[in-house]
Amino acid sequence: MRASTGQPVSVPSDKVLNLGSIAAAAIDHGKRQSLGGAAAAAQRSGSGSGSTSGGSSGSNANKLRPLLPNVPDRIGKRPSSPLAQRPKKKKRETVQAACQSCRKRKVKCDGVRPVCAPCASSGAACGYSVPEGLSQRDAERQRMNQVSKSHRDLLTILDLLRRGPDAESAEILRQVKSAATLEDAVARIADATLLLPGGSPEQSRGSTASPDSSTWTYLHDIRPFPHHRRLASPFDQPEHVFEILYRNKPPNTFFSPLDVSTSDVLPVSRWVPGIDDDDYHLTHLLTLFWTWDNTFSNVIDRVLFLEDMRLLDPLDPAPNMEHTFCTTFLVLCLLTVSCLYSTHPKVYAVPGDHSTRGWKFACAAKRILEDERRRPSITVLQGITLLWLYEGSAGDARQAERYMWEMVGLYFKLGLDRRAMPDVCPGWDSRMGRELQAISLIVWGIYSFNAKIAVNFEYRFYISRPRMEKMFEHPLSYLTLPESPTANWCAYPVDCRFQPSHYREVFAAQCTLAELAEDLMDLIGSSRDKVPAEIDKNVRLTMEGVYNGLIRWRAGLPDHLQPNNSTLPSVLSLHATYELVMIRLLSPLAAKFPNERFADSTAAALKTSSNFSMINTVWTFRSHYSLKHEYWLMQVCAAAAMSVLFHLDDGCVDVFVRACQVLHETGEFVRMANKNLTVIQQLINRYRIRLPQVGRAVEAQYFVALRNRQSTPYSDGTRVLMYVPSRDGDCKVDNVQVGMLVAPIENLSLIVD
């Protein structure tokens, strides 16, 4: 029993003293007595006290000393021991990995590289068994992942050897024998299978296929082989192509089905000294870019770029030439973007992290960019455009935004908007004549690229129609030569059997479509603030005229460029762009005049038809090739999904599901696809849209997968203009964190973190 402050305490003799009373008595007397001595003293004082009923007081000798008052802030706490007042030892800092010498001597290592403090003081040799920044466990996990990937690659190659024809099996063995190392051969051959369906580890497990479609599962589970990858269009493989070569020797004498031939190796390494000296691999990367890019490759004249790369000296940029079309900066930017089409281990800065592909080339390009800005040129303009794509796909969108506006400003600074044909044109085959042709192609390539971005993000053209003639359409252009590198195309590196690329015709059709898109976007931009009556009087007929122009454009294409007659990636991308332009034209009309007749139908019905045509075109591309590296078609699918978001009950749910599936599949490699899918999820949540039963897989699978996906990182304050649909059917101005362009719009209605 505890006494009140200042009152004596008597301890009856018949009570057993507990340990707390003994310790308290010893501490109160202030003596360092043993626990037994304190017990004896307390027992003597207890036995000598007279206990009387009613608590009568005894003699002073039998009373204990009064307890001291308790400290208020220590109520209920035991007094601290003198040992507790000692200063606490500093907590030992942990390091990710200790050096081998400290581990052997069992000494605490501070993890400093290249020499830790214990090894520096003892003079021992300091060495680490794991890379910097990784713990022992992380390094073991990384090694395990690499072993697993190597195992899968070996199984893939063995399957190719077992199921492929004898000619291709012999070619695989030749590649293995001629490679510098076995690992390099395995990585290169396995990398060739990743550019077509079934090559992705995620897709090979069937994780991206919809459970409602056996066809989609089949596309993922069945891995096609090179001898099954011929394009079946009658216009893709005309019999007269390479007729003389095929008559004299077998095709496999000239074309490797897996990699670039030695005779085509470019001297790329001398343009990027100290970064990569493997010309074979660098040529492989550039070939991937020319093969699969259908948007940014038109910004670069391939003919003069390759000519200058072979003939010019990087240290002596030929001052007698007015223009050069190959510089170290442009080569670095090209290699940066080319890495987005490869999964070779060499292109990764961090193994397994797809966003780090091409990082070493990007860093090198950015280091010399400041010096390049002091000498504005066409190659600087081209390089900045490529950096815009890289940052938008796998980097920082705020930096991509800066590159975009720098590209537009540099275009006007170079006077390309005012560039016209000279009064006296040089000869077509002279260097000056070839330079003039290249500038014409580059200017129109930038214009058509700007058209795609303007149509996608719905803003007016910042780069208007060029004044230069389309010299690439002339029959004397060097693009008409059969030995031109743009004359033929193959599905490199999976199938290197060439077919006509129709490059000139496709590019000319793109430029004409861009001109129609410019007329449309100027019209839409001027009509957004008008009331419906004004639009009906002043704009509706003009829109119908643009619509008829688009119909005539498509009908005027030659047969081999019609969507049903060709499976060339450039042709499919062209028609996907056409359908997107058509949707942009029909969307405001369908919103303001849903029931009125338009072009012998209604705008709403025509818009639905364009959405189905667009997603079918994308699906054709997906079935023949792969969308894992396709930036532009990913943006097209995002636009299709948002276009039908409020019309899912009208039969557009198939468009929505397939568009979201493409975004999900592309998001494995392109972060921007994950950001677009996030915007769609935010729109569904904002307007409380209930998806039909067939569309539930989007929420149950694709939206859930976003939690474990990397998205494009955005810095604080970055807002990007988009016109997203609203429930009333109109388009609403939103400054959204999803694209890579910012316009001076003050309305903020959707912010995606």
TrEMBL record:
This is Zn(2)-C6 fungal-type domain-containing protein. Residues 47-57 have a biased composition (Gly residues). GO terms for molecular function: DNA binding; DNA-binding transcription factor activity, RNA polymerase II-specific; zinc ion binding. Gene3D superfamilies: Zn(2)-C6 fungal-type DNA-binding domain. Residues 32-94 are annotated as: Disordered. Keywords: Metal-binding, Nucleus. One of its GO terms (biological process) is DNA-templated transcription. Pfam families: Fungal_trans (PF04082), Zn_clus (PF00172). Residues 36-46 have a biased composition (Low complexity). Residues 98-128 form the Zn(2)-C6 fungal-type domain. The lineage of its organism: Eukaryota, Fungi, Dikarya, Ascomycota, Pezizomycotina.
